[in-house]
Amino acid sequence: MMPACLTGIYCLLAFLHICSGSRLRQEDFPPRIVEHPSDLIVSKGEPATLNCKAEGRPTPTVEWYKDGERVETDRDNPRSHRMLLPSGSLFFLRIIHGRRSKPDDGSYVCVARNYLGQAISHNASLEVAILRDDFRQNPVDVMVAVGEPAVLECQPPRGHPEPTISWRRDGSNLDDRDERITIRSGKLMITNTRKSDAGKYICVGTNMVGERESEIAELTVLERPTFVKRPSSVVALAEESVEFHCAVQGDPVPTVRWRKDDSDLPKGRSEIQEDHTLIVRQVTYSDVGSYTCVVENMVGKSESSATLTVHVNTVPPAFAIHPRNQVVGVGRTVTFHCEATGNPQPAIFWQREGSESLLFSNHPPQPYSRLSVSQMGSLTITDIQRSDGGFYSCQALNIAGSVIIKALLEVTDCE
Fold first, then answer.
1. What residues does 126 pair with on adjacent strands?
2. Over pLDDT 70: what percentage of the chain?
3. What's the number of CA atoms in the CB half-sphere (13 Å) around residue 317?
4. Backbone angles phi, psi at 356, to 5 degrees
5. What φ, ψ does residue 89 adopt, rounded to 5°?
6. pLDDT per residue as tens digits for the range 392-414
C-alpha cells in the first residue's frame, strides 16, 4: 500500500518533524514534477518507458506506484524487469502480461520527495496490446454475375487497440482507390463486379501487435450468355441445304439448343454441329418459319431468331421492259426504263460501266446525287453533264438466276 505520508496530514507531520531537527536552508525548495508520464499501449514482451522528471533541492528521490501499490524496481531486486532510471523514469525491459505472473498493465504515478515535501504526477495508464488469433467472423465464398454487387463480410479477432481491416486478393492488397470498392466495418463491397474481380480473398486484421489473416474466401464472377454471332435469315430453293450459325460466350459455358417456331426441328433432315451450327437439308415449304438459338447457363438465358424462306416454283428473271440507248443534251434529264419478271420477284439494280457503285430501287438516293432508281427499276439522271456519257447496265436478280442488259447514254452540247 502507498505509505501514509502520501496523504496531506501525514506529510505535514513529517515535514514538521524534519524542520524541528534542522535549520531550513534558504535555497532549498520542495519537489515539483516537470515531466508527467503519458499513457502507453505496448505489446506483450516489448520494452517500454514511463517518463517522469522532477525538480527540487535537495534532489528528490522518485518512487513509482501502480494501482496504489509501490512498484518494485531493480533497486529493490536486481532481478526485476523494471529499472528506475537516473532521470526518474520507469523502464520496463519487457512488458509482462498473463496469468502466471503479475501483469504490468495498470494505472501508474511517480512520487518525488525531499525533506521539504513531495510531488505526485498525473496518472498514466499502461495498457498491453492484444491481438487474438481467431476471427469473430471469417469471410465465406460468394458467387455473383458480372455487373452485380459483391459483398464479403469479416469480423477481425478481438484486440486492443481494435484491429483495422484490410483485404487482399490473390496475395496482393486491394486498391481501395477503385471507386467501385468500399471497405466499411470490416465489410468489403464491390459494385458493378467485373470478371477481373474474381479470385481468392483474405481479410487482414492489424494492430500494433501484428496482423492476422482470415480463412480464404473465393469470389466467383459468372457471366450471362451473350451472342458472339447471331443467326441470319436465309432464302433458299426447295431441296437445298441451309445453315444457321450461332456462337455464344458465358461462364459457365452456356448450353445451346435450337427450336423452330414453337415446334420441333425437321426430323431426320436437321443436324446441330459441334460449333452449334444448325443444318437443315433438302428444305421444303413446310420448313418455312422462325428458327431460334436458345442459350442458357445458371446466370441467365438469351435467344436470337432468324427466318427461313423457301421458294418452291421458282422462275428466273426476264426483262419485261428493256432500256433503250438515248442521246440527251447537257443540263437535261433522262430516264432509262427497266422492268423484270420472275419468281420470286427479282431485285433490280443499275451500275455504270467502270464504276463499282450499285444503285438499288429500294435504297434511298444519296444526298446531292443526280441519279436515282424508281421502285419499278427505272434509272433517272438529272442535270446531265458531259461526263455522264457511257454505258449503264440494268441487272435483275433472284435466287433462280440473273439477267443483265446495257444501254448507251450519249451527251450532246444541245440543250
1. 40, 106
2. 93
3. 22
4. -95, -5
5. -75, 155
6. 999 999 888 999 999 999 999 87
Long-range contact pairs involving 401-406 (C-beta distance under 8 Å, separation at least 24): 401/316, 401/317, 401/342, 402/316, 402/317, 402/346, 403/316, 403/317, 403/318, 403/319, 403/340, 405/319, 405/322, 405/323, 405/338, 406/353
Domain 315-412, CATH: 2.60.40.10
Look up residue 374 and give its amino acid.
S
Among candidate residues 385, 388, 362, the one with its CA nearest the CA of residue 375 = 362
> What DSSP string describes 301-319?
EEEEEEEEEEESS-EEEEE
pLDDT digits (tens, 9 = 90+) for 39-55: 999 998 899 999 999 99
- In CATH terms, the fold of domain 230-311 is Immunoglobulin-like (2.60.40)
Average pLDDT of the segment spanning 19-23: 46
Cis peptide before 161 (omega within 30 of 0): yes
In the chain, where the domains are located: 4-129, 142-222, 230-311, 315-412
Q: Which CATH superfamily is domain 4-129 in?
A: Immunoglobulins (2.60.40.10)
Residue 121 main-chain phi, psi, to 5 deg? -75, 175
Tell me the residue type at 195. K
Q: How many CB atoms lie within 10 A of CB 372?
A: 18
Architecture of the domain defined by 142-222: Sandwich (2.60)
Strands 124-131 and 159-160: antiparallel
Contacts of residue 57, Cβ cutoff 8 Å, sequence gap at least 6 = 27, 28, 29, 114
pTM for this predicted structure: 0.59
Q: Which residue has the cell 469479416?
A: 154
Give the integer Cα–Cα distance in Å for 88 and 33. Answer: 10
